[in-house]
Write a structure and sequence with these properties.
With 72 residues, the protein is an alpha+beta fold. It contains one helix and five strands; from the N terminus they run E-E-E-H-E-E. It has one helix at 35-48; strands spanning 2-8, 15-19, 22-26, 55-59, 65-70. The chain has a five-stranded mixed sheet with strand order 2-3-1-5-4, with helices on one face. The longest helix has 14 residues, at 35-48. The chain is globular and about 30 Å long.
């Protein structure tokens, strides 16, 4: 399944919120050296209860708006 994600780096708390247009993911990591993307994958894997290897960023690697594919 492909979902639309908005990432909020440098947040105080890590959480995943469902909205009408997709999901908002708050991560503590900064968007430097791919750290925020790795935290995003970890947060989504925990939220959807799948291994991290099943979560892949399809587009938007350097953007706050991303398309993520979750394989179940």
């Amino acid at each position: 399944m492909k979902i639309s994600i908005t990432i909020k780096p440098k947040s105080r708390v890590e959480k995943v919120e469902k909205t009408d247009s997709g999901y908002i993911v708050h991560v503590k990591e900064q968007p430097i050296e791919n750290k925020a993307n790795k935290a995003l994958i970890k947060a989504l894997a925990e939220y959807f209860d799948v291994p991290k290897s099943q979560v892949e960023i399809v587009s938007g690697m350097k953007s706050k708006q991303k398309i993520v594919e979750i394989k179940k």
